[in-house]
Amino acid sequence: MLKPQDGPTRELVSLDGLYAFRVDSGNAGLRERWQDAPLATPLEMAVPASYNDVFADPAVRGHVGWVWYQRDIRVPRGWAGERIVLRFASVTHGAKVFVDSALVAEHQGGYTPFEADITGHVAPGGTFRLTVAVNNELTQATIPPGSIAEDASGRRTQTYMHDFYNYAGIHRSIALYSTPVVHVEDITVVTGFDGDGTTGTVDYAVLVAGEGADIHPVRVRVLDAEGTEVGTAEGISGTVAIPGVVRWQPGKGYLYRLVVEVLAHDGESPAGAAAGGAAVVDSYTQTFGVRTVEVRGTDFLINGEPFYFTGFGMHEDHATIGKGHSGAHMVNDFSLLEWIGANSFRTSHYPYSEEIMDYADRHGIVVIDETPAVGLNADFAGFFGTGAKTTYGPDFVNGETAAAHRQVIEELIARDKNHPSVVIWSIANEPQSSEEGARGYFEPLAALARELDPTRPVGFVNVMFDGPDKDTITDLFDVIMLNRYYGWYVNTGDLVAAEAALEAELRAWDAKLGKPIIMTEYGADTLAGFHSLYDQPWSEEYQADLLEMFHRVFDRVDAMAGEHVWNFADFATSNGIMRVDGNKKGAFTRDRRPKAAAFALRRRWTQNKATPQG
Ligand code: BDP
Question: Which atom of ligand 1 is nearest to the CA of 578?
Answer without folding.
Answer: 11
